[in-house]
Amino acid sequence: MNKSELLRILETLSVRPGKRFGQNFMIDANLIDFIVRAADICPGETVAEIGPGCGALTRGLLDAGASLVAIEIDKRIAQFLEESIKHPDFRLVRADACKVDLDKILNNIHQDKPEHCQEWKCVANLPYSISTPFIAKVLDSPTPPKFMLLLLQKETALRITARAGSREYGAISVRSQVLYHTKILRNVPPEVFYPKPDVESALVSFDIVPHPPGRQLIDTLTSIVRSAFAQRRKIMIKAVSTAFGKEKTEEAFHSLKINKLARAQDLTPDTYLKLAIKLCPGSFIRGGQRKTITCRRQPTAC
Ligand code: SAH
Predict the structure, then answer these.
(1) Per-residue pLDDT reduced to its tens digit, 95-113
(2) Smallest Cα–Cα separation from 222: which of 138, 112, 115, 129?
(3) Helix (H) or strand (E) holding 83
(4) How many other C-beta atoms can be found within 10 angstroms of the C-beta atom of residue 96?
(5) Are residues 230 and 264 in the same domain?
(6) Torsion 75-76-77-82 (CA) sign
(7) Quick one: 128 and 69 in the same domain?
């Protein structure tokens, strides 16, 4: 979709792209092609697109064979999509992507083929105002996607992919990286959108790790990470002790050889995960051996 096609559609719909819904539409065919290719869709694969807008990326994903669920909040745009995309593998959900039950939506769509709901991808040019809450929601989901490709504000992309010790490293970096290998695939300038946003963007891939941690472990990790980063300049053991008890926390730090003076940004995602395994209430002793359920599911290659 080029700029004049987009302007024609917006005029017909009487839509003036607004900040409220973070409406910056892609108008660069090369970028759209790049995203569709990087999404590496297998025919019939379930893909969720958040904020499809006028369908620039939507059509490319459908052409690549996706079974697509698009979630759009703007009623006029949603109606336009329903009327203009008559594809058997296209479903539109009119909703706020941050509020919907993603699992329920994906399960409803595949009632006839339940094996599909476990395996899905998420591809989107996300409105920047909802990117962090949406990613956090996905990370908390019982069945997170096996792959995500998200166009994000550059600062958010840097936080998602940040390494321990860097200025950008924070709770969202750790939470993303224990579940996904994250990578910036390319930087994207404001010119490829209409209207032009005030910020730079970047395309980020999220590839699920081979043995994703289970729900209980993720919950423990989230609570450790939140406590630690709530006061990132302070020594983290105090905040973690408040949440998990002094003795248990000190024992965990000691056995993992974590420096007692460490601050939140000093620990790698892998060390946070090890700490969560030690502090997870789901860790239990059976037959004298400490066992922890660490595996959520095995993603299958397509
Ligand atoms: N993906 C399209 C549109 C990007 S603009 C493109 O690249 O051209 C962002 C889109 O997300 C708009 O269509 C906007 O209406 C929609 N949107 C904004 N907030 C949303 C939310 N909370 N849930 C679902 N869609 C949302």
Answers:
(1) 999 999 998 888 766 555 5
(2) 138
(3) helix 75-84
(4) 12
(5) yes
(6) positive
(7) yes
Tokens of residue 300, six digits = 């299958």
pLDDT tens digit sequence for 112-170 = 555 544 589 999 999 988 999 999 999 998 889 999 999 999 999 999 999 999 999 99
What DSSP state is assigned to residue 190? Answer: G
For residues 21 and 82, membership in a common domain is answered with: yes
Residue 115 resides in a domain: yes
Q: What is the DSSP string of 257-276?
A: T--TT-BGGGS-HHHHHHHH
Q: Locate the ligand 1 atom nearest the alpha carbon of residue 23 and give its number.
A: 5
- List % helix, strand, coil for the chain (3-state, nearest 5): 45, 20, 35
Q: What is the pLDDT of residues 180-230, one digit of tens each?
A: 999 999 999 999 999 999 999 999 999 999 999 998 999 999 999 999 999
How many whole angstroms separate alpha carbon 245 and alpha carbon 156? Answer: 33
Report how far ligand 1's centroid is from the alpha carbon of 50 (Å): 6
213 Cα–ligand 1 center, Å: 30
Could you tell me the CATH number of the domain that includes residue 220? 1.10.8.100
Instruction: Determine contact, residues 47/66, Cβ cutoff 8 Å.
Output: yes
H or E segment and range at residue 41: none
- Residue 278 CB partners (closer than 8 Å, separation 6+): 248, 251, 252, 255, 256
- Within 6 A (CB) of ligand 1 lie 21-26, 50-53, 56-57, 71-74, 77, 96-98, 125, 127, 130
